[in-house]
Specification:
The structure is a single chain. By secondary structure, the protein is α+β, with helices and mostly antiparallel strands. The protein has two domains: 154 residues, Spore Coat Polysaccharide Biosynthesis Protein SpsA, Chain A (Alpha-Beta Complex); 125 residues, no CATH class. It contains 13 helices and eleven strands. Strands 3, 4, 5, 6, 9, 10 and 11 form a seven-stranded mixed β-sheet that branches. Helix 6 packs parallel to helix 7, helix 7 crosses helix 11 and helix 9 runs antiparallel to helix 10. The longest helix has 25 residues.
Length: 330
């Protein structure tokens, strides 16, 4: 009742709203069908995850552009128009993402697109900074899965979300495929939404985040590039294991299960890799040029510990990352 009314107040002249229900059982769909009879509802018989459900919506959509929006958001009336304008002005832009502010504290930023680091870890750009920051349009390494628009022709070219991911890291994977195909992702500050965001790291998220990070890198990067990045990946692995040990046994098991899945599903990874490599129009150095060395630990842990880790780790990642870009010449 917060998200949908804001969508229907858009000043964009012609759009359809599709809601994909992932086999909910709480009566919410029946309620929404009564309240919003113009809403196009697609009911899944089972929970297909974030990736599968959105892909169902992609198939149902008929527009030239497709917007993905989380239900825990509220959008400004010009949200959609500004994103479409940015995409229409740039033939090489595949996706555009808005300035996302915190729902409970709209004076602060949730994210202005996402940063991909040399470790494959991703972070929100501008989290907790003042809303007036990030006033200029920029190319970003990844859109935010909470809200973005993609050109339908490019979605058809690179494919929808990878359903092997199920949830988490899916927008990063889609952004990487778009860049691999020679396109770019845009941050559009004039487009503004509000997101009910709070960082959480349950054991299930630990499994999907860690598994999906390596799965996506393994299918996107050339083998030589992956080898060049091994020092950065080793550092991230040490940090990840240390992080899950802070949370306890369930998180340790989840981290372990992510590696078991990657090993047991290596044939599936190789098949996904073949499909992804068919999109390649740029070299890996182009991809790495969009990555950053900054691991924003303050977003995921206590501020003092986070800042200490940043002071120690980020200079090392900076040196290693730039060295990796020099070595990545093939």
């Amino acid at each position: 009742m917060r998200c949908l009314p804001s969508i229907y107040r858009q000043d964009y002249p012609d759009y359809e709203v599709i809601l994909v229900d992932n086999a909910s059982t709480d009566g919410s769909i029946e309620f929404l069908e009564r309240e919003f009879p113009q809403l196009i509802v697609v009911r899944n018989k089972e929970n297909l995850g974030y990736t599968g459900a959105n892909n169902v919506g992609f198939k149902k959509a008929t527009g030239k552009y497709i917007a993905v929006l989380n239900p825990d958001t509220k959008v400004e009336p010009n949200w959609l128009q500004e994103l479409v304008n940015a995409l229409e002005e740039d033939q090489f832009a595949a996706m555009a993402t808005p300035k996302i502010l915190l729902m409970d504290n709209p004076e602060k930023i949730n994210t202005c697109g996402n940063d991909i680091t040399f470790t494959g870890l991703t972070f929100c750009r501008g989290l907790d900074q003042q809303a007036e920051s990030y006033q200029e349009p920029e190319i970003v390494s990844a859109v935010s899965g909470a809200a973005f628009v993609i050109k339908r022709c490019i979605l058809d070219q690179i494919g929808g979300f990878d359903e092997n991911l199920f949830m988490y890291y899916e927008e990063t994977d889609l952004s990487l495929r778009a860049m691999l195909a020679g396109y770019k992702c845009l941050f559009v500050p004039k487009s503004v939404i509000y997101h009910q965001y709070a960082f959480r790291f349950p054991p299930g998220k630990c499994f999907y985040q860690e598994r999906n990070r390596y799965y996506s890198l393994l299918k996107t990067l050339r083998w030589q590039t992956f080898i060049v990045l091994l020092p950065e990946l080793l550092i991230s692995e040490i940090l990840a294991w240390g992080y899950v040990f802070l949370f306890g046994a369930d998180h340790i098991k989840s981290k372990y299960r992510s590696w078991v899945w990657l090993i047991n599903n290596r044939d599936q990874i190789l098949m996904a890799r073949q499909n992804t490599q068919r999109l390649r129009q740029v070299d890996d150095k182009t991809l790495l040029n969009s990555f950053t060395y900054r691991l924003n630990f303050s977003q995921t842990t206590k501020p003092l510990l986070g800042r200490t880790l940043e002071l120690i780790i980020n200079p090392l990642i900076f040196v290693l990352g730039n060295f990796s870009k020099i070595l990545t010449v093939w």
